[in-house]
Design a protein that fits this description.
This protein is an alpha/beta fold. The protein has three domains: 72 residues, Arc Repressor Mutant, subunit A (Orthogonal Bundle); 150 residues, Rossmann fold; 36 residues, no CATH class. 58% of the residues lie in helices and 9% in strands. 32% of the residues are buried.
């Protein structure tokens, strides 16, 4: 919807029926709970029928209640506090089904990510990374784990990869002050969006660098600064963010980059395997060690 959902509801409030006003009032006052209710549960909560809730969605211009719910969820995720997240997740699942529910939801998020990811932007992101002089990677808070994962693997493939730490604003710009048009900045952020990541991407853009944004929506503040926009569906399992789909997307990027440079990647890992063996980096499987020592299976 082009207009803010809350503004639309407030403008339509005077002309709504009594039942629709009950729904509208609940959404405006209890948005954190309403965003994750089924039509049936929302109707029961405010004292109207499920069909009334469906008609309310149509009254606002939505194709159905699921579209209204998705819009409300997109608006809400960046507003929910940690306490509100716990309250919402407690209402969505219980201790008996939490394992099944969380894993199945993550599977659905990967499917949704595959549906929304633009392949042209994906291929452009691969091109930008391959052609850049220095690769800067920025992710704060929960997104820092994805940024660190990406930095680790890209550092094995490229000589100039910089993981930008989450620091004060002055230190942040000291870390990226040399970025220029030969470089690429990869920014990763999901609701609640990081101001530091937005600032870093804005600065990189002002210096002529290419920007890759990994985020959840075209309405994300990172999206407007991106030369290549990669969308991945995130959600909250509780107060913790579910970042399975974004991590899967990053895995796909790394795989695409390695396929495009298979000879270089192979040569690099041949050297690494020799280093790992010489310096005893990895623990050996005891069963394999016994086989090697005795010359036969145990």
């Amino acid at each position: 919807m082009s207009k803010d959902l809350f503004t639309m509801i407030k403008q339509k409030m005077p002309e709504l029926s009594k039942g629709h006003k009950l729904i509208a009032g609940y959404i405006l006052s209890q948005y954190d709970k309403a965003a994750f209710m089924t039509a049936q549960k929302l109707g029961k909560t405010v004292g109207v029928s499920e069909s009334t809730v469906v008609r309310f969605a149509s009254e606002l211009g939505f194709e159905g209640y699921p579209q209204l719910q998705r819009t409300l969820q997109d608006l809400m995720r960046n507003k929910l506090t940690a306490v509100q997240r716990i309250e919402v997740s407690s209402g969505r699942m219980n201790s008996d089904d939490v394992l099944e529910r969380v894993l199945n939801q993550d599977i659905e998020r990967i499917r949704a990510t595959l549906a929304v990811t633009n392949k042209e932007d994906f291929n452009k992101a691969v091109d930008l990374i391959l052609s850049s002089n220095t690769i800067y990677i920025m992710g704060t808070r929960s997104s820092a784990a994805i940024a660190s994962f990406m930095s680790y693997y890209l550092s094995l493939l490229f000589p100039h990869v910089k993981l930008v730490p989450s620091t004060t604003s002055s230190e942040l710009f000291e870390k990226i002050m040399r970025i220029d048009s030969r470089d690429v900045m990869i920014g990763i952020s999901f609701p609640r969006y990081s101001n530091q990541t937005v600032k870093a991407l804005t600065y990189a853009k002002s210096k002529g660098a290419n920007v890759i944004a990994i985020t959840d929506s075209t309405s994300s503040p990172l999206a407007a600064r991106a030369d290549a926009l990669l969308l991945a569906k995130s959600d909250m399992a509780s107060f913790a963010d579910s970042l399975v789909a974004p991590l899967s997307l990053v895995n796909a990027l790394i795989a695409a980059i390695s396929i495009r440079n298979v000879d270089i990647v192979t040569a690099t890992f041949e050297k690494l395997e020799k280093i790992w063996e010489d310096f005893d980096v990895y623990a050996k499987n005891p069963e394999h060690s016994e086989e090697g020592e005795n010359g036969e299976e145990q």
